[in-house]
Write a structure and sequence with these properties.
This protein is mainly α. It contains five helices and no strands.
């Protein structure tokens, strides 16, 4: 299981809140056992996928607003993660397989926060952005 950590914060309140919620939405899938029905698992997966899409759209709007220079590459990375999660949602599998795949996706999501979303924070803190907003 991947747990939320304060070290993932990038300093943009709404985005941080969404990152945390995504990780928390994955938690019931990690804690699920074989007593959960296929439909319940599917609902959890759909909720996770829809939230990921919502978050990425929101984050992309923010990056456009601040004229983030690496927006196009960032959007491609988002698409890859959404596509990977969509494949898990669409492919029937036993719970342990689903849990293993979700763990990989959530780890990639967290790595994306630490490696890529952190760049947004650095950009905003840079004098380049400060000059643009004056």
């Amino acid at each position: 299981m991947v747990l939320w950590s304060e070290e993932y914060l990038i300093g943009i309140r709404e985005i941080d809140k969404q990152h945390k919620k995504f990780v928390e939405l994955a938690k019931p899938l990690f804690e699920a056992d074989e007593e959960l029905s296929r439909e319940e698992i599917r609902e959890l997966l759909y909720a996770l996928r829809e939230y990921m899409k919502f978050h990425f759209e929101d984050e992309e709007k923010y990056m456009k607003k601040v004229s983030f220079p690496e927006l196009d590459e960032h959007i491609l990375q988002h698409k890859r993660l959404v596509d990977e999660l969509a494949l898990v949602v669409q492919t029937p599998a036993k719970l342990p397989v689903i849990q293993s795949k979700i763990k990989v996706i959530v780890k990639k999501f967290v790595k994306h926060i630490r490696d890529e979303d952190h760049k947004i924070k650095l950009f905003i803190e840079s004098s380049e952005y400060a000059t643009q907003t004056q």
